[in-house]
Amino acid sequence: MFDGYDSCSEDTSSSSSSEESEEEVAPLPSNLPIIKNNGQVYTYPDGKSGMATCEMCGMVGVRDAFYSKTKRFCSVSCSRSYSSNSKKASILARLQGKPPTKKAKVLQKQPLVAKLAAYAQYQATLQNQAKTKAAAVSMEGFSWGNYINSNSFIAAPVTCFKHAPMGTCWGDISENVRVEVPNTDCSLPTKVFWIAGIVKLAGYNALLRYEGFENDSGLDFWCNICGSDIHPVGWCAASGKPLVPPRTIQHKYTNWKAFLVKRLTGAKTLPPDFSQKVSESMQYPFKPCMRVEVVDKRHLCRTRVAVVESVIGGRLRLVYEESEDRTDDFWCHMHSPLIHHIGWSRSIGHRFKRSDITKKQDGHFDTPPHLFAKVKEVDQSGEWFKEGMKLEAIDPLNLSTICVATIRKVLADGFLMIGIDGSEAADGSDWFCYHATSPSIFPVGFCEINMIELTPPRGYTKLPFKWFDYLRETGSIAAPVKLFNKDVPNHGFRVGMKLEAVDLMEPRLICVATVTRIIHRLLRIHFDGWEEEYDQWVDCESPDLYPVGWCQLTGYQLQPPASQSSRESQSGSSKQKKKAKSQQYKGHKKMTTLQLKEELIDGEDYNFLQGASDQESNGSANFYIKQEP
């Protein structure tokens, strides 16, 4: 049990006074019970007994132990410092002929040695307030809490996102965990706290209810559990902060200490180092001015040099090195497979656009290779992919479709250049690079066995499309099934879960999204408010997926669900261009499972595969078909 109101004596509370230095502390009103860190409950019906607040340092303590006739200061030094600083402040105000500002009042009340620290804290407070206001404005009125509550949605747990803050150390944070949070149901001019329990979790966001409200949800509120105002039980005691019950229920009990002892015995709370872990998990090795190789967004077949312009929550805004006005940019996560260290393209034989800049610009430096995501090592000495082999692949220009594709070139270190059949440019400028272990490429028959619509080559007239006929007509062979990645992690996603997802067709945008289908490790992501044709197939470990509340935590702008009017206003946008392309790519009705059985696999293999593919789950079954040469 975390005994937050009994774990610290009165003598240990003085170290916390500076944390509220930007606020002017007024005397606490009468008839309000306050639990101090020695566990006693004080009241002051006459305004002269009970608790008092030091007018110099802000410490709350027992009034009888304070100094001066009026009991205004916690120590002799505070009394003397206040007297000295007050005289100086009065003289300064008279000389200037104007009243001091709030910032000046703060500095005047501090001892001289604390002025710099107080000013630094004041500036930090202003910056935090600005960030909070900017984040609130960017949400454009959208509230995850209201959205989830009004529709009874569920959100993907933080543990599904290993690349996100706290993704690997979330622990057993769940419903009924107790925390100490600011008490907003209070008329005190200074910040006080109370204990609340988690009623519901949605990613980083938690629906909290103050202790003492029982089944009354009238004052329930949502907050980000990783926020700076959320603390484990016991933090107030260690920090000298008072625990004050909400005004609405303060009359319910006369002995609040006994109530809390009963309620918190055996209860769970956050780990003591939770805030430290949050801070550490939000430190990112990529820094501005680092140079990388990244895919050329206008010619997918090659890479270009780009420079890190900014880093937000591990997401990088990259500016192509030749962009003079620094507007030609590209967004991706630092673990994206689309970025590499300088020299990567040459090392594997990938196309590369040489920069017209002959030397690095001042301050720019190459990113250390060890910072990039590692790919699985493969053995290319034995049976391996060959040029001309057929497979199925997610179209990077239309991520809602899985298409008939061909290996166009085999590169070093397991990388492949792949083209979409029927829509390739003559010069191969729209080939794209996938690693052999990529979860975005699949063996022939994957879509059929998993009931996914396969997009046939553009212009192919022999419909419905049949792989057996197509391979014979083109004189091609299918890539061996055993060469594909069959690993399926226990990812934890379920159909219907909410999350925040990058729109990979416009990667600077992160949108409210839903998991609508799961095929082993492959997720179908739907952007709330948009039509299904804008859905995207994404791997369960993609760094472009985030928990609910990630944008608020990192200060990134979240795109709320599209309304009907906003969808109609996008007629000239990239999404409409994508719509036109998707109409050209529309596939046709799938072959029946019986047809597939007859044409591609023998009966014994079919019986095994049918059992492995009938369910859409996160299981680890081998769901690929065995092909005949």
Mean pLDDT: 79
Judged by helices, strands and strand pairing, the structural class is alpha+beta
Largest sheet: 7 strands, mixed
Count of DSSP helices? 15
Over the alpha carbons, how many angstroms does the gyration radius reach?
31 Å
Which overall shape is indicated by the principal axes computed on the Cα atoms?
Answer: elongated
Strand content: 15-25%
Residue stretches low in confidence (pLDDT < 50, at least 5 long) are 1-32, 36-49, 109-113, 131-139, 574-629
N-to-C terminal Cα separation, in Å?
Answer: 65 Å
Helix content: 10-25%
Count the E strands.
Answer: 29
Organism: Catagonus wagneri (Chacoan peccary)
Protein name: Mbt domain containing 1
Region (Disordered): 1-32, 561-591
Biased composition (Basic residues): 575-591
What topology does this entry show?
Elements: E1 34-35, E2 41-42, E3 51-53, E4 60-62, H1 76-96, H2 102-108, H3 115-138, H4 144-151, E5 154-155, E6 178-182, E7 193-202, E8 205-210, E9 221-224, E10 231-232, H5 235-239, H6 256-264, H7 274-281, E11 290-296, E12 299-312, E13 315-320, E14 329-333, E15 339-340, H8 344-348, E16 351-352, E17 365-366, E18 390-395, E19 398-410, E20 415-420, E21 432-435, E22 441-442, H9 446-449, E23 454-455, H10 467-474, E24 497-502, E25 510-519, E26 522-527, E27 536-539, E28 545-546, H11 550-554, E29 558-559, H12 564-568, H13 574-585, H14 593-600, H15 603-613
Parallel strand pairs: 5-24, 11-17, 12-16, 19-23, 25-29
Antiparallel strand pairs: 1-2, 3-4, 6-7, 6-10, 7-8, 8-9, 11-12, 11-15, 12-13, 13-14, 18-19, 18-22, 19-20, 20-21, 24-25, 24-28, 25-26, 26-27
Keywords: Chromatin regulator, Metal-binding, Nucleus, Repeat, Transcription, Transcription regulation, Zinc, Zinc-finger
Pfam families: MBT (PF02820), zf-FCS_1 (PF21319)
MBT repeats: 142-246, 254-350, 352-457, 465-561
